[in-house]
Write a structure and sequence with these properties.
Number of helices: 6
Distance between the termini: 65 Å
Number of strands: 0
Shape: flat
Order of helices and strands: HHHHHH
Number of domains: 2
Length: 190
């Protein structure tokens, strides 16, 4: 006799939501909140807040997904979806400031992104940063190239000599010390 004939239902394989349902719920939640915030912004004369749309839309998605999952799939799968959606929500909340910062920099910086920005320096510019004297980034580009070049000239020969020493002659206290420091420096981003 099969399990279905006995009235036993396997909660791991029965009644599952299709894979597209979470994505559709997320898109629908964002769309509904975009419309609601659009109506509120138009009615109050305020600005449209896309960050609030994404945040509250994601929270609405969490509630809807867990509720629908509980009704269709049962409590075990609903708890799994709850934790998954909370981790996903935490990621979205954590990434919102970064996306907002990148968007703001791109929109505000696009006005000044021209050839003069790369060919002019800030040297001897009084009142730099204003529209009359915008300045440029040539000094920063050259400084970065100089520092990177000097660091490369110092570190590459030392690294090559240390590697050759370890491969060809590496025994004793010095080899262990070099290996230890190489391992430590490998784990530290520079």
């Amino acid at each position: 006799m099969s399990g279905a004939a006995n009235g036993i239902v396997n909660s791991l394989t029965s009644a599952r939501l299709p894979k597209w349902v979470p994505w559709a719920l997320l898109a629908g939640s964002w769309l509904v909140l975009a419309i609601v915030f659009g109506i509120l912004a138009a009615g109050s004369g305020g600005d449209y807040n896309i960050v609030a749309v994404v945040f509250f839309g994601t929270v609405l998605f969490d509630v809807l997904l867990v509720t629908i999952s509980y009704l269709v799939e049962g409590s075990r799968r609903a708890r799994d979806r709850l934790v998954t959606s909370l981790v996903s929500t935490a990621f979205i909340i954590a990434i919102l400031p970064l996306v907002s910062l990148l968007f703001t920099v791109a929109v505000d910086g696009w006005k000044r992104f021209d050839i003069a920005f790369f060919t002019q320096s800030m040297r001897n510019i009084v009142g730099a940063g204003t529209e009359q004297f915008p300045g440029g980034a040539l000094h920063a580009i050259l400084g970065t190239a100089e520092i990177t070049g000097m660091a490369t000239l110092i570190s590459v020969p030392i690294g090559l000599m240390a590697a050759i020493y370890l491969v060809e002659y590496g025994r004793g206290h010095l080899a262990r010390a070099i290996t230890f420091f190489v391992d430590v420096m490998t784990g530290i981003p520079s």
